[in-house]
Hints:
This protein is an alpha+beta fold. The chain has helices at residues 2-6, 24-33, 40-49, 97-100, 138-174; strands at 12-20, 67-72, 76-83, 109-121, 124-135. The longest helix is centred in the C-terminal third of the chain and has 37 residues, at 138-174. The mean pLDDT is 89.
Amino acid sequence: MLIDDLMPKFEFGDTNKIDVNASPNAVFRAVKTFNMGDSTTVRWLFKMRGIPTENLTINDFEKANFKVLAEKRDEEILLGLIGEFKSLTSGLLKIEPDKFRDFNNAGFIKAVWNFAVAETSHGKSRLTTEIRIHPTDASSMAKIKTYWGMLRPPSQMIRKEILKLIKKQAEREAKGK
């Protein structure tokens, strides 16, 4: 998987899954086009973190310094960011995807977030999303322990809501509505 290639080593992580009554192709299209802003929960949690809440598609995440690092059509898309995390929204770097894997400057935290789709049976799919976090040194490890402890529950809520939105959109498309 792309996530294994770009961040094989990580200290913190979390995975969520949902089964979808749609083909992997339909699910992947929904991953690329769903609007996170369609969820009141996601909008509220993003506002708390200072993230813009209009047009919240995968491509719009670049406004929050997430970068699409890699994509395997109809299978997986991988986003990432690097930051100092001095506060909830500051210290984020703009980094090119080809520099992400080898970035290891002291004082930073690297995070990746993927969406992976796999066929489970005749036209059905499993959508998985995973977060992995890797601090680059001991001081960033201390920061992320506190940060992840605070933000893991709302992060889980966001990812669960996102999976529901993608499922709804993919299944609606599969039914031709």
